[in-house]
Design a protein that fits this description.
Largest sheet of chain B: 6 strands, antiparallel
Order of helices and strands of chain B: EEEEEEEEEE
Number of strands of chain A: 9
Strand content of chain A: 35-45%
Radius of gyration of chain B: 14 Å
Largest sheet of chain A: 6 strands, mixed
Oligomer: heterodimer
Number of strands of chain B: 10
Largest interface: A-B, 25 and 25 residues
Radius of gyration of chain A: 13 Å
Structural class of chain A: mainly beta
Chain lengths: ~110, ~120
């Protein structure tokens, strides 16, 4: 059971918009800590997708965006493409555990 | 370009200690701007933070690993290492070393090693 809760799977057709939620508690997201998102394509190393809850690293398409409110965060992907099919993970700091926590991951399927 | 490379002895037997080294190239591990850490991923499962270390030797580790973790740093070799004691089959995973940017509480991984699969088997 992960400290941050993500839906196990989401899906969408090419061109559509999907969102992936990351629900935490008052000791992590709700405490004001930043949420970061990673994309892991099949068989590859995770890659930073969103940092500081809303920022995209250089090279990440504008189709990917992050938001945070209260004890939750979301990753939105617009204009879905087949190459977006991957696992997505959220990550934050938890002050009751005094360490980093990850969501359980969400598998995105492009129909 | 910063690169991180994990190295280790291969398969581990139950109850033994896993020892992994991460060699950093293309940048100094002594930079005060970053933490360095270990993250693992069991087959078909999600990511799990193991622990982190600063160049001063200050460490943080995952309490769920019940004090089995030791992380150390050797700035003269530009390496940091992981020891995980009392290994069981549940510790079978790909182990990644990583650079952590943005401080310990607000940080994230901006560089990953390629990962090394550690299998615990008798």
């Amino acid at each position: 059971q992960s400290v941050l809760t993500q839906p196990p799977s989401v899906s969408g057709a090419p061109g559509q918009r999907v969102t992936i939620s990351c629900t935490g508690t008052s000791s992590n997201i709700g405490a004001g800590y930043d949420v970061h998102w990673y994309q892991q394509l099949p068989g590859t190393v995770p890659k930073l997708l969103i940092y500081g809850s809303v920022n995209r690293p250089s090279g990440v398409p504008e189709r990917f965006s992050g938001s945070k409110s209260g004890t939750s965060a979301s990753l939105a992907i617009t204009g879905l493409q087949a190459e977006d099919e991957a696992d997505y993970y959220c990550q934050a700091y938890d002050n009751s555990l005094s360490g980093w926590v990850f969501g359980g991951g969400t598998k995105l399927t492009v129909l | 370009q910063l690169q991180l490379q994990e190295s280790g002895p291969g398969p581990v037997k139950p109850s033994e200690t896993l020892s992994l080294i991460c060699t950093v190239s293309g940048g100094s591990i002594s930079s005060g701007s970053y933490y360095w850490g270990w993250i693992r991923q069991a087959p078909g499962k999600g990511l799990e933070w193991i622990g982190s270390i600063f160049f001063t030797g200050s460490t943080h580790d995952n309490p769920s690993l019940k004090s089995r973790v030791t992380i150390s740093i050797d700035t003269s070799k530009n390496q940091f290492s992981l020891n995980l004691r009392s290994m069981t089959a549940a510790d079978t995973a790909v182990y990644y070393c990583a650079r952590l940017f943005g401080g310990y509480r607000y940080g994230y991984v901006d560089y990953w090693g390629q990962g090394t699969l550690v299998t615990v088997s008798s």
